[in-house]
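Hi R.,

Here's the chain you asked about this morning:
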Amino acid sequence: MQDNTITLPVDELNNATLVNHVYTRYDAISNRSWYNGPGHTELLRNQMSLFRSAAKPNGNFKGVRKTALKFTKDHTVLGVDGVSNLVAPAIVDCGFSLPVGMTSAQKLLFRQTLIAGLDHALMIALQDNLDI
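And the predicted structure, written out as tokens:
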């Protein structure tokens, strides 16, 4: 089981200055944990969720282990009418399906490639301008 408190060093401005974001376990059931993060309230969520599932072998293949990480944070945004403020969730989730037998080094390279993709200008263009 993961720790009851998880601290993520976040480079909030992408300038190599890290700010600790502390998440505290809120609930857990088999293979799932939910954490509340900085500023979380009943009205405005800031949550992190962790999920996992065991590998299911098939014939000679050892199967895949599945894990996922999800962040949900509510934000106030301007409505279509240009007057009303609405609260809506921003959600980001990352799921992995890794074959049993991958080395730790292979998994590290895969995660680092994902991080590079998320931090690359292509992601900014995709999110800000919907460029594909």
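The chain has a mean pLDDT of 93.

Let me know if you need anything else.
M.
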